[in-house]
Amino acid sequence: MAFHLDTDKLVDLDRAVRSIEDGALVALGGGLSARLPMALVRELIRQGRSGLHVVGSAHSIDVDVLIATGTVTVCEESYVGFEQDLGLAPAYRRAAETGTIEVRESCCVTILTQLRAAEFGLPFLPVRGVKGSDIRRLHPEYREVVCPFTGETLVAVPPLRPDVALIHAPLGDRRGNLHLDQPYVLDERFAAASRNVIATVERVGSAEEVAAAGVTIPAHLVSAVAEVPYGAHPASCYPAYAYDRAHLGEYVRAATAGGSELAEYLDRYLTGQPTEEAYRKLVGADRLAALGQWSESIDAWKELFR
Amino acid sequence: MSARAKSNEQCFSIDEWFVVALARTIRDREVVFHGFGSPCAQVAMHVARHSHARDMMLVEGATYSINPEPPFIPPTGNDLALEQGASYRMRFEEFFDAAIRGDVDRMFLSGGQIDRYGNTNVTAVGPLERPKVKLGGGGGGCNLAATIGHLSLWTTRHRSGRTLVEHCDFITDMGHRTPAGSRAELGFAGGGPEWLVTELGVFDFDDGGQARLRQLFPDVSVDTVRAATGFEVQVASDLRSVPLPSSAEIAALRAVDPLGVRRSEFAPEELRRTFSHGQSVGCAC
């Protein structure tokens, strides 16, 4: 976890993603349908990466589309799905049911504890729960430890040190300082525990501007930054835009159908679009602009979610 | 208030009554949390805070914001709408640390399967190696269920016959007892499930940690509950009807959930169940 001291880490998306190797342990930032690192996910798919081991808290289309394209071998998220609104994650579900990925479902608290062990440079940390839950069956690496002070038996979990954390931020500078809006979810912990952080930002600003907005993730933790407007789409990246519920619906329908319908979606939005610029053009400037209109009025905001 | 508006408030549907029943599991001055993907629990917390539990501390499930006044409940749990008017926004770790050390009084939990001890399965139906249905997963539940003061469980799919089961195929979040032991034996400080609210009725848990039917919705019989339940149904000696929602509770609910996201948890045929204060069943509105 050596600090990253280069003074200029601004690269294009292609180069940022090229450093991620097949089989890497990848932490995905953001959560549910908010601030997901979708441009990085799309570029991983364009570059044909495979064998990834993904880890995170509660996620949706980022993990599901990586699974749909055969990019993932091991999934260690605490949840993958589209909540009550759009339901189960179709590709995740299919891959788990047919055994084409290894499901190591975990728990937000356990992941947090494992990241802290990595941050502290410790060989393990204990968690109080997990006992009595079958989640333990998915993790033969867990052990038990007896507290030397109280005699209590606790579950011991090893450190989690991702090879790379993928994070999307509304604002950052060339050095890699990132400003995020809350909720940060696990992004701060991922940044500190991972060997590398590859970030996309809606906009690159001056060091002064980022400092004034507030640095959430400092440059010394970040290895590369790429400027990608709408880099979280179809997830939200407030204050710039709300999530694109209709697009998520389109994906879930295609992924549920599978076969040619899914192939068509993947070709249309991912493999068929060589760059993010092409992707934005396909989604449409009007549509993207509409997602930014949430702030005009409560009615406009509500209307986006109908 | 116009006559029509008044009459609308006297009529309500099962999703509304259900959410109010959930809200009433919250006591005033409790610190309460819901998981994501839980619109009924989410709406219930806001209803409680605007009716009988005005001094509760409401922690939103995926933004960790405290006591927000959202202009509406959006269909996703991590949205800026759920931070509007919040007095504070916790970090992820700030909330989970508080929950693990025992500073959170209540959490809402559901499951694709729920057994008599209130164990819940949100991981997989069928054998783990080759599941019939891979569910979304448990989020933070398998640690939180150990230490949070009380759990309010709920399901809107009791009638399906597949939800309240003899044994969960997989226990994601522990209730009162699993094959590994009881909560006391495992050293868990949290009290475990206190209530289980379904679209058919309300259960509490007896001293042995087993679910017991306490209340029924008026259009449901004990036989219907038995037929839909995979474990033997214990019925409380003082079984009664679920208390009616107040007009204030219904008004609070409609104000906070104008998009009706709570309804996404119900089968379409359930949503046809409507009630009124006057006659309690069979409202024509």
Description:
The complex is a heterodimer of chains A (306) and B (285). With 306 residues, chain A is an alpha/beta fold. Chain A has a single domain, classed as Glutaconate Coenzyme A-transferase (3-Layer(aba) Sandwich), CATH 3.40.1080. Chain A has 13 helices and 12 strands. In chain A, strand 9 and strand 10 (178-179) form a beta hairpin. The relative contact order of chain A is 0.16. The model of chain A has no long low-confidence stretch (mean pLDDT 97). Mean pLDDT of chain B is 94; it is low at 1-6. The relative contact order of chain B is 0.18. Chain B has 285 residues and is α/β, with parallel strands linked by helices. Chain B has helices spanning 3-10, 14-23, 39-49, 92-100, 141-147, 183-186, 222-228, 247-256; strands at 11-13, 31-34, 57-59, 65-66, 88-89, 106-109, 113-114, 120-121, 124-125, 133-134, 150-155, 177-178, 181-182, 193-198, 201-205, 211-216, 234-241, 274-276. The longest helix of chain B has 11 residues, at 39-49. Chain B has 2 domains: 1-104 and 245-271, no CATH class; 115-242, 3-Layer(aba) Sandwich (Glutaconate Coenzyme A-transferase). Chain B contains 8 helices and 18 strands. At the A-B interface, strand 3, helix 4, helix 5, helix 6 and helix 13 of A face helix 4, strand 10 and helix 5 of B.
Instruction: Enter the CATH topology name of chain A.
Output: Glutaconate Coenzyme A-transferase
Number of strands of chain A: 12
Uncertain regions spanning at least 5 consecutive residues of chain B: 1-6
> What's the number of helices of chain A?
13
Largest sheet of chain A: 9 strands, mixed
Q: What helical percentage do the residues of chain A reach?
A: 25-40%
Give me the secondary-structure category of chain A: alpha/beta
Uncertain spans of chain A? none
The named CATH superfamily of chain A: Glutaconate Coenzyme A-transferase
The biggest sheet of chain B amounts to:
8 strands, mixed
Greatest interface:
A-B, 60 and 65 residues
Number of helices of chain B: 8
